[in-house]
Structures are given as C-alpha cells and as structure tokens.
Design brief:
single chain, mainly alpha
C-alpha cells in the first residue's frame, strides 16, 4: 500500500499540474467539463493521501473513492481516443486520432488508476475498516 500512497500524490500532480500544463487555463473556454473533472480528481487524490497520512478511520474509504473516480474518469478519454484510432476517424478536432502518444499516455494513466484502485480495495487496512 506504500506504493499506492506515493502514487496518489504523483497522480494528483498529474491531474492538477499536468492538465494545466498540457492544455492551459484557456481550455476552460473550450471544454470546462474535462478540466473540472481532472481538477476534481486531483483534489480527491490529494484528500485521500492526506487522510491516509493522518491515519483517519475513513482514509481507506476516501482512498478507494478517489481511485474509483480517477479510474472511471480516465476510462472514457482513453477508450474514446483508442476507438477513434481503431476506426481511423477523428471524432473531436482537439483530439486527432493520429495522436498515438496521447492514447498511450491516457492508457498508462488509466492502468495506473485501475491498479491502485484494486490494490486499495485489496489492502488489509481497507478490509478491516470497510467491513
């Protein structure tokens, strides 16, 4: 669970700073929903890591919720971009299907989120607290 704890901070940074660096604040005028979703995900992950470090009784539940939100939030961007690439058709002009680097990056982020969610749900501390 130690690895997941540190990955929680790393991924919070990815969602908060990475999204801003990649798209810029001006992207709010293009697609505010995706920006808010990524920022909310980053905040949830920070909250989860903070509560985990404080050993709050609710920390395992908060950690599970944060990773579940991150996993679900990354599935659609990854799957839709992968589908566009497979169909050889760009669905959104700001997400060209030929940008395979973004597809790989989204897939890696989604896989990390899913692995951390599974590890969180299987952790001994979570089983003791959630039951």
């Amino acid at each position: 669970m130690t690895v997941v704890y540190y990955l929680t901070y790393v991924m919070a940074f990815v969602f908060l700073v990475g999204e801003t660096a990649r798209r810029g604040i001006g992207y709010f005028s293009v697609n505010a929903t995706t920006m808010i979703e990524d920022y909310l995900c980053g905040v949830l992950l920070l909250w989860a890591a903070w509560s985990w470090s404080r050993r709050y009784d609710t920390a395992p539940k908060i950690m599970a919720v944060a990773w579940a939100y991150a996993t679900g939030g990354m599935f659609v961007p990854f799957a839709a971009h992968l589908e566009a690439w497979l169909r050889n058709e760009t669905f959104r002009p700001d997400h060209p299907h030929t940008d395979t680097g973004s597809i790989v990056l989204k897939g890696v982020i989604w896989a990390i989120c899913l692995a951390c969610l599974i590890a969180t749900l299987q952790s001994r501390q979570n089983k003791q607290t959630v039951s």
